[in-house]
Fold:
Amino acid sequence: MNERTLRVLELDKVKTMLCKHVSSGLGRELAEGLLPVTERKEIGRLLDETAEARTVVRTEEFPLRGLTDVRPAVRRTAIGAVVNGEDLWLLAAVLAISRRAHRFFAGRNSLYPLLAAHAARLVPLRSLEDLILTAIGEDGEVLDRASTQLQRLRGDIRQAQREVKQKLEGMLRSSVVQKYLQEALVTVRGDRYVLPVKSEYRAQIPGIIHDQSASGATLFIEPMAVVELNNKLRQYQAAESQEVEHILRELSARIAAQSQVILENLEILAWLDLSLAKGRLSYEMRAARPVLSHDNSLSFPQARHPLIPSADVRPIDVRLGQSFSVLLVTGPNTGGKTVTLKTIGLLTLMAQCGLHIPAAEGSQAGVYESVYADIGDEQSIEQSLSTFSSHMTNIIQIIDAADGTSLVLLDELGAGTDPMEGAALAMAIIDSFLARGTHVVATTHYSELKAYAHTKRGVQNASMEFDVETLRPTFHLTIGLPGKSNAFEISARLGLDKDVIDLARRYLTHEALKVEDLIRGLEASRKEADEASRQAFVKQRQAEIQLKEAEQHAKLQQEKVREIQRRASEEAKALVRRAKHEIEALIEALKQAEKEGATQELTQTIELVRQRQREITREVSEQVEAEAVPAAIAPPEEPIAVGDDVLLLHLNQRGKVLEVLAGGSVTVQLGALRTQVEVKHLRKVSEGKKRESPERTGFHTVDFAAHNVKLELDLRGRTVEEGVQEVDKYLDSALLRGLGQVQIIHGKGTGALREGIRDFLNTHPAVKSHRLGLANEGGSGVTVVNLKQ
Structure:
């Protein structure tokens, strides 16, 4: 990329913003060296990494805090040098960060695949990390536990210090010695314990003088009584220093052995730091990931210049390359033309650096091999170049270098010279870029260029709007409409005499008048199109609101239907449970009557059962009518016929059609019950949706004619649901025949059937107890059931 362009478009200021979000000097170094990439696949990967990083910083706590640049220390160990404790502590922190980063992304590989691919190359060095933390404290001090020898020496040092202090404190307590001292305290000079003695009493305290005060009134004397103790203390301290040096040397050697791995880990951590900084910047700027176009076209809706405060920036909608490769922007001074140029250029550079851009979702960015910009007044006094000459020198260099993979930004093209010659030169320059397929955005004031853009294929007009009423620019970019100079309108608003303005109009050339008429016509057409678009938008919004209201109404209706169905289903289930309990009581009465041999009572009880069954059928029918489903549920599309399997919507139960009645009703068999239901409350169940096993209704009929009830029931090959139904019916028959103990054969298999039968037996009211069979009874493949009598 052209270095002058990077400077003019102020990419360095964006990088300064990025540096505020890095966590380490390593990341800052990469951020400061960030440059646009020209390979499409690499740009796409960088943008995706930034998207992943943005998600991480918004939703996760990533472990990069405390990352420091320890490369100098690592490189010193590689050449045999010994590093100090402070550097070793920082190295341990970096090793811990590497380990945590590796673990963090290893568990989130599917969420952040690109960042996880970088983190997967990190090599955790936990043993080296633990070794350093065992020996080095947070302040860089070598800890006692670093070695047994060091621990012993420091114990000796502490003991020797106590002995010296005790000896000197004994002297301080002596009334004879106290009068010779400047202060009653023990102090240290040159690692030796001394007493502050008045200089005139030097001869009274025999010993070695190590220092004296600035005034000379105090001498710091090591009494002869502690010289030997101090010497022993110094020996211990010297040995301690040697042991500390030995420990540091060993640790440095261990780091040197892993120096290449550590340096590679630092490179990866620096890259992760940079990626996360990009993610934070994206979130802070409310930026979006641009899509990379395949034809180098760009489209930046709601684009904002990243260096202008968000409270002041005015978004613009700009595009280039779809149907035109040159965009000519006209408009008043201070109207935002130059900012528009810089926005287009800077957002393009940001995208190619892997940064998200401050624009709306769905933005498209081109991939340019080079970006050139001639923006601003750079006349050179030393070289005696005018503004025109300075611009032309830059443009000549751009023309020589630009091609079909370039983006060129030109501010005030052709300005600084005769307007007619400048306009002609500008059109020729644009023709030259058009012939090469170069993408160009240029600003101008020349009316000739407005007409040129209107008629030239591949060139499009654009304008920065100006509010004549307030005499202020709106900073709104309109593509397809050239800008007016508004000189006459502004002069009139400022109070210039109308006759003077009319006279000025007569001085305009015929071509200039044609351009003004063209602009007015285009502006009128645009206003009509905007009004039509506005009306269409309003109608579309109204339609969307009506559709939303209809959907909400339908949703409410569906919720009401579901509530009615739920309530009806609960009430029907309660009715079935009650009926089951009543029938069980009647069965008990039947058993009792049979035992007593009361034939008449048995006949009466059977009739009572039949009567109760009819009552239950009637109650279910009444429940059906009471909880009729609203008309919002459409009738079934296929006609209901005898033998069809159907779903009762209000009961959420399945049954079989026995009879089709007049008036839109049918008779449905629900287990042991028959009920009449209106067709609108039914849904025909297709063959593919029929259940393989019959639906349980909560109770069943008992075969009162059964006289030969076996002592065992074989369920092998049954499902759990089928087995439970057969056991329920079998136990009722066994109770009716007065059996006290029965066996249920379920086999061993997976144990699912056995557990299902045992769970059912735990809740059956007639079961007294049950157990697995003994070895001679079939073992765990049989359950023996004892019934209540």
Summary: The longest strand covers residues 459-467. Confidence is low (pLDDT under 50) at residues 379-384, 628-636, 688-707.
